[in-house]
Every structure is written in structure tokens, then in C-alpha cells.
TrEMBL record:
One of its GO terms (cellular component) is membrane. GO terms for molecular function: O-acetyltransferase activity. Keywords: Membrane, Signal-anchor, Transmembrane, Transmembrane helix. This is Trichome birefringence-like N-terminal domain-containing protein. It is a single-pass membrane protein. Belongs to the PC-esterase family. TBL subfamily. It comes from the Eukaryota. InterPro entries: TBL, TBL_C, TBL_N. Its main location: membrane.
Length: 413
């Protein structure tokens, strides 16, 4: 046998090296394919990264997207994220446990959408999302009630510092220093310009003077400072009021003034919403706006000033509650005006915060007589007459679930 020639030896050497290179290439290619498959599998759900690369919040997949405002209240053994003693920003009228409410079951329910899972509100996620931003809740006492709930949960992560309040302590501002986040509540119960003659208990000395075509000066002057706003109104439009447009009286609601035309409250509500939404839509300052629908009350056998009360201890089921005519009228106006406005937002974002049905199903979550400190102390329970609050919410209470909805909407964007 002849020994291999130099040329054939060189060929074997080159062939062997090429074979090794091919094997190495195939290994690298297989690694890339494996990594691609792993990436696709791991990120098959939608995630939102919040400023910090080490923090990722899972949200429902596209298939799971649904109307989070349609669902039911389910028992929640975990309970609230705070207590009446761990949160220092609860106003006394909503501090039901401190005021002596004897039951606590109303705190152990949570809103569950019908067709998808709703993650719990995460204060860490919210504060990171809001880093270097400003948010304002503009409206009536329901807006203030919601802000208190949000503050209570956020304060478990970082104590807020109150940096402003108006003379009546109805408008306030808080600052979260480590996140450079400002949270405000602005008292503007009609959203448009109004002169109100009423004390803190709702007793009026004169008709409201309501300018339907002028957005409220309380918030217009601050508007350019906000990145996010939530607006809401409703129940105040049932009050006796004189209506103005172009600084001229056009009518009134329940005022009984000679030669002044009676005007339905829903006309005034519609005009006020149009004025508010048009201002936001046409402003050069673009904001993310949440428009909240009306909150029904649960007074039974009377109203707040005629002996009405609310003493239920569990939520309604879907089939057990229907909106009253007044709430239906308000909601119809809201949905109609929202539909008009959302079609032409001029660069701003407008979202519906549709909590009407959630609220309707919770007759058990109000302060009732426990808006006051131990209201029956020293009184005959069979003859005790106290004012009830069947509109606002105990804290902790049902309104805490609104924050689950809030962060869900914001992070989806």
C-alpha cells in the first residue's frame, strides 16, 4: 500500500477542519432556534415594563381582554390592603370602623370581571408608572372618596406629604418624593363654574348659580400641570340651581323664581359635560383623561334628609338591583357625550371609567349612620334618629376595587 500523498493528506486535514466548522455552525444555529422558541414561549403573555428593568407586571393576554366593568362581587378572604389605623388620610365621615360600625364583612369582597382576571392593585407598580408625573381627580365628593382610597394603598409603600389644601380642605395635593409624583383632588362638583351656598352637611341657604358654558376655574388654572386626570360629577345636578349661559339666566331647576323657566337637570348636566370635555379636547396641553360615570346611592325609605337609611350587609346579585330613573338618565347622558367626545380627542386620550354597575351592587359598603362617631351612643336605639350616608364608601371598602380597575386601564396603554 502506498503512503498517502502530501496533497491527499492536506485534503483530509482541510476536510476535517471544515467538518468541525459545520458542526460548530449547526450548534450555534440550534442555540439560536432554541432561544427564539424559549423567548416566544416565555413572552406569550403581554407584559408591561415599568421604568425599572427588574420589574415586570403581567396583564391579561389579548384573548383575555374584556369589559372589566362587567362582572360580580366575590368573597375575598385576603381583605383590604390597609386598615383604618394604618392609613392616616381617611376622613372621619368614611372611617366606619373607628366610628363604631360593628360588622366588617363588607371589606371582604372583591370585584371580578366576567371574562378575564383582574390583577390586584400594586402600589409599587403604580408609583413607578407615575414617576415624574402628576395626576388629578376633579369632581365632587366621590372623587375625593376615591383619592382617599388610593392614598391609603399607596401610603403602605411610601407615605405621601400633603403640600396644599384650600380653605375648606376640599381640594388637596400630595407629593410622593421618592417618585416625584404629585396627586391632587380638586373640588369642582359641577365641573363648570358655580357659586354654591351650602354648608358641609348639605344644607343650602340659596340656589346654586351655575354657568354651564364656563369650565370650573378651580381646575382650569391647574390643567397644564397634569399628565392624568379623572373627571366625574352627577348628584349635584339634582340640587336647586339657576342656570347661566353667556352670563345670562337661561332657566333654573326647582328654583320657583317668577319669570324664570324651569329646565330639566339633565339638560344642565349635558351642557356641563360638553363644556368640560370640549375644553380638554381643544386644549394644547394633551392629557390622559378618565371619565367616570355616575355613582348611584342606596337610600331606602327616604333620602339623606328625610330619614333614608342603608343597613344591608352583603352585596346585591346582578338580578337584585336596577338603576333608578334618575341614575339611568344621568348615565345615558354620560355615554352619549363620551361617545361624541372620544371620536375627536385632538391628540388627547379619553377613556370611560364605568363604575356605575359596580357601585349599584354594593348597598352594604356605605357609612350609613356611622358617618358620625358612635352615632347611637347614649341614645335609645328604637327612637334614635341620625343622618345616614348611603352614597359615599367606607374606607376600607368597595371603592378600593376601583384602584384595580384604574391601574388595569392605565397599564394597558
Amino acid at each position: 500500500m502506498k503512503p498517502p500523498s502530501a496533497s491527499s493528506a492536506m485534503f483530509c486535514f482541510i476536510g476535517g477542519r471544515a467538518q468541525k466548522q459545520i458542526q460548530m455552525f449547526l450548534k450555534i444555529l440550534a442555540s439560536f432556534v432554541f432561544m427564539a422558541l424559549a423567548y416566544r414561549f416565555y413572552f406569550s403573555k403581554t407584559y408591561v415594563a415599568l421604568h425599572q428593568p427588574d420589574f415586570i407586571l403581567p396583564l391579561p393576554t389579548r384573548a383575555e381582554k374584556c369589559d372589566v366593568f362587567r362582572g360580580e362581587w366575590v368573597r375575598d378572604p385576603e381583605g383590604p390592603a390597609y386598615t383604618s389605623s394604618s392609613c392616616g388620610t381617611i376622613e372621619r365621615h368614611q372611617n366606619c370602623i373607628k366610628n363604631g360600625r360593628p360588622d366588617s364583612g363588607y371589606m371582604y369582597w372583591r370585584w371580578r370581571p366576567r371574562d378575564c382576571k383582574l390583577p390586584r392593585f400594586d402600589p409599587k407598580a403604580f408609583l413607578r408608572f407615575m414617576r415624574n408625573k402628576s395626576m388629578a381627580f376633579i369632581g365632587d365628593s366621590i372623587s375625593r372618596n376615591h383619592v382617599q382610597s388610593l392614598l391609603c394603598i399607596l401610603s403602605q409603600m411610601e407615605p405621601p406629604v400633603e403640600v396644599y389644601h384650600d380653605k375648606g380642605y376640599r381640594s388637596k395635593r400630595w407629593f410622593f418624593e421618592s417618585h416625584n409624583f404629585t396627586l391632587s383632588v380638586i373640588w369642582s362638583p359641577f365641573l363648570t363654574e358655580a357659586k354654591i351656598f351650602e354648608d358641609n352637611d348639605g344644607h343650602a341657604t340659596g340656589a346654586v348659580r351655575l354657568h354651564l358654558d364656563e369650565p370650573g376655574s378651580e381646575w382650569v388654572g391647574e390643567f397644564d400641570k397634569f399628565d392624568y386626570v379623572k373627571i366625574g360629577a352627577g348628584k349635584w345636578f339634582l340640587k336647586t340651581a339657576v342656570y347661566y349661559e353667556n352670563n345670562t339666566i337661561i332657566g333654573c331647576h326647582n328654583c320657583k323664581i317668577v319669570n324664570v323657566t324651569e329646565v330639566r337637570f339633565d339638560y344642565a348636566y349635558r351642557r356641563a359635560l360638553q363644556t368640560t370635555l370640549n375644553f380638554i379636547r381643544k386644549s394644547d396641553h394633551k392629557v390622559y383623561t378618565l371619565f367616570q360615570t355616575t355613582t348611584p346611592d342606596h337610600f331606602e325609605n327616604g333620602e339623606w334628609n328625610t330619614g333614608g337609611y342603608c343597613n344591608r350587609t352583603v352585596p346585591f346579585k346582578e338580578s337584585e338591583a336596577e338603576l333608578r330613573d334618575i341614575d339611568t338618565i344621568m348615565r345615558d347622558v354620560e355615554l352619549e357625550e363620551f361617545k361624541k367626545a372620544v371620536g375627536d380627542t385632538n391628540g388627547s386620550t379619553l377613556k370611560l371609567f364605568d363604575t356605575t354597575r359596580l357601585a349599584l351592587l354594593r348597598p352594604d359598603g356605605h357609612p350609613g349612620p356611622y358617618r358620625a362617631f358612635h352615632p347611637f351612643e347614649g341614645k335609645d336605639l328604637n327612637d334614635a334618629r341620625v343622618q345616614n350616608d348611603c352614597l359615599h364608601w367606607c374606607l376600607p371598602g368597595p371603592i378600593d376595587s376601583w384602584n384595580d380597575l384604574l391601574i388595569n386601564i392605565l397599564l394597558r396603554e
